[in-house]
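hey so i finally got around to running the thing on that chain from the lab meeting. sorry it took forever, my laptop kept dying and i had to restart like 3 times. anyway pasting the input first so we r on the same page abt which one it is
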Amino acid sequence: MAINPFYALLMLIVALPLGLSFFSFKEETLGLITLLVIVSITLFIHTREKFDFFKFPLKFVVLILNIYIWGKDFSIEKLPLDLFFTAYAFTVFLLLREKSFRNYFYISLLSFLSLAIVGINFQNVIYGFLIFFYLFNIVYFFLLLAVKAFEFSNLKLFKNLFKYSFVIFVFVFAFGGVLFFILPRPEKPLVAFIKKEIPKPAVGFSNEVKLGAFSEIVEDKTVVFRAKLSLKETQDLYWRGNTLEIFDGLRWKSVSFGYLKRLSYLHKEPIKELLLISPYGGRNIFTYGYPIKVINSNGDVYINETKGVAEAKKVIVKPLKVELFTVNPQEVRVTLLNKELLLYVPPQIKPILGRIVEKNHLRGLPFNLLLKKVGNYFSTFRYSLDNKARDLEEFLTVYREGNCEYFASASAVLFRFLGYPTRVVVGFFGGDYNPITGYYVVRQKDAHAWVEIYFNHRWVRFDATKYAQVSENLKRELQNNLKQNKLQLFWDTVNTLWLEYVINLDLQKQKSLLTRFQNATREIGVSAVENLGVLAAVISLVILLTFRKGIIFAFISTYYRVKYRIPIPWNLSLGELYFLLWKKYPPIWLKEREKLLKLWKYLTNLKS
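ok and heres what got predicted. didnt touch it at all, straight out
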């Protein structure tokens, strides 16, 4: 039995917000599955008009479920989830009542409310596409509701209304889009009090990193942030996120107290960075340079002078846009207040480091030569994604292979042993450049660790990993990870535009868009004035092609009025002119009949 298209549309409108809720309210999966089962049974009963004896048990179960959700750890932060279940409880009650215009109208409103609630937590670009699809279907649903399509099934009517709904949707979407971009945005979201679910932070983004931890995310292609730089040319893309100072032989930890003072930085033109950060469960803002000033952000961001990094005051649980000025870390002059903190070496590693220093003649060397010699030492090691070493001692003496945090840790303690205060920096290296948007796309697989050495009141970057040997198989694997196909490029472009112009649209961006629109309008006006003759010719050609039949009729009428001095109306068609001449002016008709018939054939072909 074929289902009425109206009921198919009803199922879609009711089910879509419920399906998206599994992305928005991940902490209540069991309750959502229960609700999904109840709604599915309710829709089946409603469309088939059978099994009425299930109506009361369904109402009872959904009521109990709703009471349970509201009573379970009630808080203002959990209000969206509670309201979502309440909206669907009312939807179930309405579906189990009689079929009427009023009930269907309320169901559609509750569905739209549910979709809006889901959008508080789920702001992916997929949500944007589904809203576009949902709004078209809701317009179509209202048109069907207006003619009470639930009372009959007329496919021809459904097809005609589908066309009308498409036209209406285009106008509604265009008008809504204009309002979205011109209405002023509040500085804080209206639902800012609602606490978002905190994602589990990825490895390397917390204040503690264990040896071997980076191997867990080396294949993870999840986007962490996108960055646009004012630099025309960039070399090595090191994105600084956090610094780690304390090492116990197995893990690095970050300190919260200050151990240095920034004196000054070279007065070169600063780098302007625009960052679009995805919710990743941490507070670190990853920057190409040393942050000196936050220009704009839609969240509370501050600069940690000690570490030379920017941080959010709260865990990033929603897309965050940050704009700031940075400078090259090596251009910043600092004074170290606690050298002992950055010179500590675990006692169990000191004998191994002593042998390395003696064997490679590393003592008493000029700093630049020392960097070169240490790099040469690590060139005998192998870079590997499979970390066999359980600690730093095994890495240095047994296996001599590992990934970036092993190399960073080994070089840090080696420089400390030689008397240079050193810290480990965690962040990212590289990124995929999108030439369409101008953003670098940085993913979790790009996570990296290196060291900064305090020398001559400056931090000098040293990355031991880049000196390591890499097997051919691993080289090919890494190269394959760097490749972007056209589909990935397109999808990233869509995601970037969604983040920049929808999710992170603020008052400053609106002003910028308005200014660009005004400038474009002004340029079009100036260009139109300068090319007035060409514009007039184009308009004339368009008019001629559009109204060519009317122009031909007017010309023919004028021809006979002037030639035979007879009163012929201007608005006559060729057929009407033919019969007018035949009836009132037979001599003229006999003379012009052949010409009129030829014109008739020509215009008929023109029309076809």
